[in-house]
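User: Sequence in, structure out. Go.
Assistant: Echoing your sequence, followed by the structure tokens.
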Amino acid sequence: MPLSNVERDVLDLICDEHRQTRRGAKALIVHAGMNAKNSEQKARVTDVLHALQKRGLVMLMDGTAWIPTGKGVEEMAIDPADLDPYHFAHDESPIVSIERIGAPLPDDLLNRCAAMNAALLAQAETAHAAGDADAWRDLAWLMETGRQLVAVGGEV
């Protein structure tokens, strides 16, 4: 079933916010972006968010911010190369994944990527242990990337 105009506008807003900030769009941002001023308008936007979530196009991250899923990005016909690879939706593959690259990676490049991933993972673990509230995003992305690297033959 095609998206309604308001669903498309909300999804576009979420994709845009996510692309710019590497984080999700809080409901307050979505309401403001959709010019929802009164409680009735805000309730309508919230209903649209839940409808998009039910269709698997957006996810509520940590109960606070809406992010597009890979399916949502595809629905908006956004080129994954235009997105920052740190975008990650829980319970889903990163929006840009190694499998989507297509051509096999040379072993030396794959192993360099794996080594870089391991170094960044160590930094993210240190930041998380030091109390960085946003480090979990990097940890989640780096762990998933490590799994993908191993799946295609890298050494992590």
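User: And one key feature?
Assistant: Helices lie at 5-21, 27-33, 39-54, 70-75, 107-129, 135-151.
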